[in-house]
Structures are given as structure tokens and as C-alpha cells.
Give the backbone structure.
Amino acid sequence: MSTLVLDNGAYFAKIGYSHEKVSVIPNCQFRSKTSRLKTFTANQLDEIKDPSGLFFILPFQKGYLVNWDVQRKVWDHLFGKDMFKVDFADTNIVITEPYFNFSSIQDTMNEILFEEYQFQSALRINAGSLSAHRYFHENNSELCCIVVDSGFSFTHIVPYCRGRKMKEGICRINVGGKLLSNHLKEIISYRQLHVMDETYVINQVKEDVCYVSQDFYKDMEIAQLKGEDNTVMRDYVLPDFSSIKKGFCKPREEMNFTGKYKTGEQILRLTNERFAVPEMLFHPSDIGIQEMGIPEALVNSINNMPEEMQPHFYKNIVLTGGNALFPGYRDRVYKEVRALAPVEYQVSVVLPQNPICYPWEGGKLLAENPDFEEMVVTREDYEENGHYVCEEKFDI
Amino acid sequence: MSSCSSHSDDLSSVRSQDPNQRRVLDSATRQRRLTRQLEALEKDNFQDDPHASLPQLVKRLPQFDESNESGKRRKKTRGDHFKQRFRKNFQTLLEEEDLSVSEGPNYLTAFAEPSKFPQRHFCAVCGFPSNYTCVSCGARYCCVRCLGTHHETRCLKWTV
């Protein structure tokens, strides 16, 4: 009786058996201009020789699963004989969902898991609950924690107390990795080179070169300097998929500050974009989205909680999600929350080793938990009682 | 994105630098443009589907290795009406939930509120902090050089 843990994200699906390692696989289908007949699913991305102008087909829209056709195809591929070779009748599945998931989506997921794939039993849970479980497992003495999950579609700030999420405190900021990449594409397309079609390449640029600045206006001043004094500026070499397979950032020693480069590479010169793009997580109002940034929303969310719990929340802030990988993210969150929080409370911000797989690891611990059997819904339960039993048992 | 000129029929006047003849957008139009730009940031793809122009016959090719053995294990899904449920878009699902009548925290109440801090403005051309606003369309710029670039490339080039 094995358990498959699947953190079903809008961009990456983190999947693995609870007794094995996790694999991070894109949760979408790709189409390429060059190979016209084939649609690539999930990790078949590696087979594409020329990822320029790659067309993405994502089953998620605004963070919620709307396109089941594509999702089923991806799952067929993941559960099939090429990947995990799932034996459905003998497997439990732990699968994650976004917060406040719509009931129609929940019902459809029940039907697909039990009637189409016929898993033995299933547990639907929020990704943040798995992160909280993992955090409490390590820090047994703490009662409350607050999880900041900054992913592809949006960022959620969720307080947890004794393992249960507090719905009144959940706050959602509609800024995620997708918005950051699209914004970067727009500004590069306006200032330097038309890259609006190159989602995959610019995503790579964002991951390699962007960072969170600790002092925004000072970095802006440095970025305006000319020549060697400008320590912020970097040149990024774009891939051309024949000689250069993957884009990379030129090291400072090789950079040519005056005049042009002699070689035939395509170069992007990035100055303030490096830190202005992740700044949108902290100040969405920079581009006109009238919402609070992460530190403000954290403090706001904690203020909505009962007074006696507030110091506990400030002491246990956990950062997860893909956007937590920006260099300087953790320090910046700490600095801003420390400035906004009352002076007598202690503030502590934790960034795990691997923020993307943190919920998956929580799922793995949960599968090994002795209470796991009571938390799942078995297929027999579902067939007797229908959607009602799932609504009762799963706290979404 | 065609621009319609309502104040004058002469196309050359749209491009002239004469301030008397440049159109000035009102705040409602500026708000609409901003909303349009923000919605464009939510798109997955900016190009068209490469498979869109291919004939449908390609998809009918049978795949003998996969379908035979999986047919034994899986029940068939219930046909077309089932598939229709799978294709709704986000807006439809949100409306179906009918959240305004339910009590307690839900998707709509979890929305982050507007920030208490004032908005910071950046030059639309170079990205550095800006101090000045374009008279016609409301975009920000930091120096006269950027204003020139803005007038040549983007100002009033398309309207909502």
C-alpha cells in the first residue's frame, strides 16, 4: 500500500512516492513552432530541441484548475508506464489544492480521482497545510505559524494554529511568478529586444539574474551610474539553440563597459530591471495593482488574529513557493516586517532549504503519520456517500 | 489596436508636437488603458497556437500501444456532457460559486486591500523613478530625453 504525494501546482507539479524522492515536473503541455505535429507533455520538455517561441498550455487559470482535458493528459503521462507506473487499486494519493477552491472543481476532482483513475483512497489538502505540518514537526514547541506561499499565480498568507488554518486571516495577493515574468517580457520588449513570445527564455533570465534589493532607492542610484561604477548592471547572453543551448549571465570580468561586443551573441543589458521586477512582490502598486505587498499583508493578517496569538505568529513566519528563491528575499521580508511589527514582539522569518518542495516534504511526513488512515476518504466511502463525505472530511 | 482620432481628421496632426493639437485623455480613459495593460499581464501566451492551422485529420491517427491496455482498467467517461464541464473558464466558475450570498471567509473576502503607503511612480521608458507626467496620456517620465522617446513610440499610439 504505497502513497503518492502530488503537490499540484500551476507551474510545477511536485510528485513522488512517500518512500522515494520528489520530482519537479512542469504541469502543462508545450507546443513548438519547429516540431509541428507533436504536443509535448510535462517533462517531455527536455526532448524539444528548439524552445524558442514555445507555446504553453496551462490547465490552471488564475491559480484554479479549469482545463481538465490538459490536466488529465499530464496526469496520464505522470501516472503511466513512463514515469511512476502507478498501480491505482493499491495506492493512496495526497493531492494539493488552492485555498477556497470552488466546489465544482472539488467535485470534479473527486470524480476523476475515484471514478476515472480509481485510487484506493485520496486526501485533498491545501499546500500550506502540508508546509505547516512540516514546520510543526520540526519545531514541536510552537503552537502557531504563518505560511507565506508565493507561487506562480498568486501569493497566499495563511495563519495556522495547532495545525488548523484560520480562515479569517487568509490573505491573497494576485502577484505571482507569472506576473513577474510577463512584466519583465514587456519592459525588455519595449527597451531592448522583442521577446514577448519567449516565455521560457525570459523565465530563465528572471531566475538567473533577478534579486530582491535591500535598499531600493540606493540600488536605483547605483544603477544609474555609468561604466565600472555601476555594480548592478549585468549582461545576459541569450541562447540561440545551436551553439548556446542555455542562456547565461556574463561574469563581470568579461563585460565590456564601453563599446560593443565583437562576438555574434545576442546580449541583454539589465540594470534596474534586476531588482525592480521582484520589487512588485513587495509593492504591487508599482505597476498599478492596488493591493498590499507581502510584508504589509503579513502584518495585516496577523492583526486580524486574536491578540494573545499575535506574538506567536511573528515568531514563526515560514516562506515557501518558487518566488522565495530570489536572493535577498528572506532578509527583505524580515526587515520590512520588523519595521512594521510592534517593538516588543520578537520577529523570526524562516526560509527552508528548498522552498519549492517544502509542502511535498510535509506530505511525505503526513503519509507516514499514524493518523493518516483516518484523514483519507476511501473509494468505498465515496461510492456509498458521494461528494458529501469529502466535503465533511477535507477542510478546504 | 487602431487609433481613432476624434478631434481632427488630418492624420498628420496626431504626430505633430504642437501642444495645441495633441489630444488629452481624460481620467476614465486612462483608467481603462491601465486596466487593459494589467489584464494583458495575465495572459499565458502572446503568440498564436502553432497547431491552430493544422487540419483536424492529424489527431485521428490511432495509437495502438496505449489505448488497448488502458481500456481494460478505466471506466469510460460519460461522453460529451461530461467534457463540457471540463472546459469552463475561470470567470464562469467564479460566478457559479455565487459567493456573495455565502457567509464567512471565502475567495472574495481573502482579497488583499489597497496599500496604505503611497504609490511610487517609475518612468515608462527607462524604469527609474520619475517626477513628471505626460500631459496627453498620463504616462510617467524622468527626463526630457525619455519624454521624446515616449512621444515617438507610445504616446496615444493606441486607444481603448
Q: What stands out?
A: Chain A touches chain B through 72 residues (CB under 8 Å).
